Here is the input.
Amino acid sequence: MICYLCLKPIKEDTTWSNFLNPQHRTICDHCDDKLEQITQPFCQKCMKPTADQKCSDCIRWEQHFGQDPLERNVSIYTYNEYMKDLIARFKYRGDYELINAWKKNVRETFKEHFKNQDLSIVPIPLGDDRYSIRQFNQAEAIAILLTEPIHHILTRQDGQKQSKKSRRERVFSNNPFQITQPSPKSILLIDDIYTTGTTIRQAASLLKERGAEHVQSLTLIRS
Ligand SMILES: [Zn+2]
Ligand SMILES: [Zn+2]
Here is the structure.
């Protein structure tokens, strides 16, 4: 095997357990070390690193908007400098193959947190303009790794920024998403990066208006 990140050969594990149950690795140890997985302590709601139960972003959200449409976000990696380079290669230079570097951890995280919950997988869509530039949707690329049915019920039309409105108005009146059919009851939204959580919550609030009862998210990175 060749490492998907540095393109050097990977030394396969020659133990008996690997022989009996081969784990085909997609990245080498050296590259794996540079990917930084999120570890405790973190916000129990969105996984932002903090010693408190809930981070300032989540508290601020509740203060400004009351009821939070998002139940919980689970992220896998921190947005360190190495990951920033990878995301630039993946999203902006179209290196789709990089998805393989994250495959194992995406699957394991899904299993650990969401297996047996009967969730409908909904990737955050890209607007048409960006899709035609990138030729793929990074959220969908991550969703495909889960090998579960994908529900394409959201579309996106990014509007003009309306800076005169209050933050609350901006978030809800400028919702870039549209929904094409009633929502299933339990949703798992998929996206690449969770930054402020606004995008995920805009999608979540629309899904809830159209029938969702529980909305959670799985994102590759918590920045
Ligand atoms: Zn490597
Ligand atoms: Zn939080």
